[in-house]
C-alpha cells in the first residue's frame, strides 16, 4: 500500500512538473508546404512525452514524398518547440497563446527558411478517411455527380444514367471510401473529349498538383513504342545524345553511351540517387526539377562506377524526362518541311 502511494505521488509530481503548455503540445500536428516546387505536400509530426524522464520524442511524415521517420531529437521548453528531423532539417517554433497553433521556421539544406503553421489533428494525413464531409465525418456512400464546368479547358458531359447507377461502379467507389485503395487521390474518366467523371479522395483536389512519376514513365514508354512501330524511331540502340544535338558541347563523352533502349528499361547506368526520400537534398529527381535545364541535368550526369548501361535497373525519373524530350524532337521533325 505504501509503495502504491509512493508511485502515485511520484506520478502526480512528474505531471505537475510538466507545464500546461507542454501538455498541450503532445499529439499530432499538421500543415502543408511545397517540399518540391509547385507541389503541395502534407507535413505531419507527432510529439510524445515521457513524464518520468522528462524526455521528448516523436516522428514525422510527408506522405506525398514518401518521407517518414523518427525525430532525431525534440525539445519542448514552456511554449518553445525545437525539432531535429535529421539530414540537416530542423524546425523551431512556439505554441500560440490559445494553444491551437505551432508557428515557426523550417530550415532545410539548400532551401530558404520557410515559415510554417501547424494545427492539431486527430489522424495522420496518411491515415485520414478517403473522404470527409463538412462536419469532418467519414463519407461511406457515393452518388454520381457530373463534373463542374470550370475554366480549365475541359468540356464536360454527363455519364449515361445506366452506367452511373451500375452496381460495379458503385461497388468500386464504396470500396475506395472504405479505404481499400489507400493513396488513390483522384479518379477521372473522359470519353470523346468530354470529362464525365471527376472524383477526389484523401489529399486530392482539383487545384492540387500531383507528382506522377511512375505514370509518366508508363505513358512516355508507350508513346516511344508507338513511334517505333510507326517508323518514326528507327533504332532503339541509338545513343541518347543523338536526340539532343544542341547539348553536345556541354555533354561529357561517356563510354559506353547510354542508349534509348537503356532509357526505356531504366538501365542507363547513370550515377543517379532516387532511392532516398524526396525531402533529401541529395535526391536527383528534386535537384533536376530545381535545375534551369532538366535535359542538361540528366545528360551531364556521370556513369555509375559499378554498373554499365544495360546491366542493372535503376529507378530514374530523369530518363522519363529525356523520353519526353525525344517525343518532342520527333514531333518537331514531323512539322519541319
Describe the structure.
This protein is of the alpha+beta class and 337 residues long. The protein folds into 3 domains: 2-126, Beta Barrel (Lipocalin); 131-200, no CATH class; 213-335, DD-peptidase/beta-lactamase superfamily (Beta-lactamase), CATH 3.40.710.10. It has 9 helices and 12 strands. A hairpin with a 6-residue loop joins strand 8 and strand 9 (114-121). The chain is flat, with a radius of gyration of 26 Å.
Would you tell me which CATH topology of the largest domain applies? Lipocalin
Low-confidence stretches: 3-17
Per CATH, the class of the largest domain reads Mainly Beta
Shape: flat
H and E order? HHEEEEEEEEEEHHEEHHHHH
- Return the domain count: 3
The amount of helix comes to 25-40%
Instruction: Provide the structure class.
Output: alpha+beta
CATH-assigned homologous superfamily of the largest domain:
Quinohemoprotein amine dehydrogenase alpha subunit, domain 2
Strand composition percent: 15-25%
Amino acid at each position: 500500500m505504501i509503495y502504491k502511494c509512493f508511485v502515485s505521488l511520484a506520478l502526480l509530481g512528474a505531471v505537475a512538473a510538466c507545464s500546461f503548455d507542454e501538455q498541450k503540445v503532445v499529439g499530432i500536428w499538421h500543415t502543408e508546404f511545397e517540399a518540391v516546387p509547385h507541389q503541395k505536400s502534407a507535413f505531419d509530426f507527432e510529439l510524445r512525452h515521457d513524464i518520468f524522464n522528462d524526455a521528448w520524442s516523436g516522428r514525422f511524415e510527408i506522405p506525398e514524398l514518401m518521407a517518414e521517420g523518427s525525430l532525431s531529437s525534440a525539445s519542448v521548453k514552456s511554449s518553445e518547440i525545437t525539432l531535429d528531423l535529421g539530414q540537416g532539417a530542423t524546425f523551431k517554433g512556439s505554441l500560440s497563446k490559445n494553444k491551437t497553433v505551432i508557428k515557426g521556421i523550417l530550415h532545410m539544406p539548400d532551401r530558404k527558411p520557410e515559415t510554417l503553421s501547424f494545427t492539431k489533428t486527430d489522424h495522420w494525413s496518411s491515415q485520414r478517411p478517403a473522404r470527409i464531409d463538412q462536419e469532418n465525418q467519414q463519407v461511406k456512400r457515393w452518388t454520381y455527380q457530373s463534373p463542374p464546368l470550370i475554366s480549365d479547358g475541359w468540356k464536360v458531359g454527363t455519364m449515361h444514367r445506366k452506367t452511373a447507377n451500375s452496381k460495379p461502379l458503385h461497388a468500386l467507389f464504396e470500396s475506395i471510401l472504405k479505404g481499400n485503395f489507400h493513396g488513390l487521390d483522384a479518379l477521372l474518366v473522359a470519353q470523346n473529349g468530354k470529362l464525365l467523371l471527376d472524383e477526389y479522395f484523401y489529399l486530392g483536389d482539383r487545384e492540387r498538383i500531383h507528382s506522377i512519376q511512375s505514370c509518366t514513365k508508363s505513358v512516355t514508354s508507350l508513346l516511344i513504342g508507338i513511334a517505333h512501330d510507326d517508323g518514326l524511331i528507327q533504332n532503339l540502340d541509338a545513343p541518347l545524345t543523338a536526340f539532343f544535338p544542341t547539348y553536345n558541347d556541354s555533354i561529357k563523352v561517356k563510354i559506353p553511351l547510354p542508349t534509348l533502349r537503356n532509357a526505356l528499361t531504366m538501365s542507363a547506368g547513370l550515377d543517379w540517387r532516387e532511392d532516398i526520400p524526396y525531402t533529401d537534398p541529395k535526391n536527383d529527381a528534386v535537384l533536376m526539377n530545381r535545375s534551369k535545364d532538366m535535359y542538361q541535368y540528366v545528360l551531364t550526369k556521370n556513369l555509375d562506377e559499378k554498373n554499365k548501361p544495360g546491366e542493372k535497373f535503376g529507378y530514374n525519373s530523369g530518363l522519363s524526362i529525356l523520353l519526353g524530350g525525344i517525343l518532342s524532337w520527333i514531333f518537331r521533325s514531323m512539322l519541319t518541311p
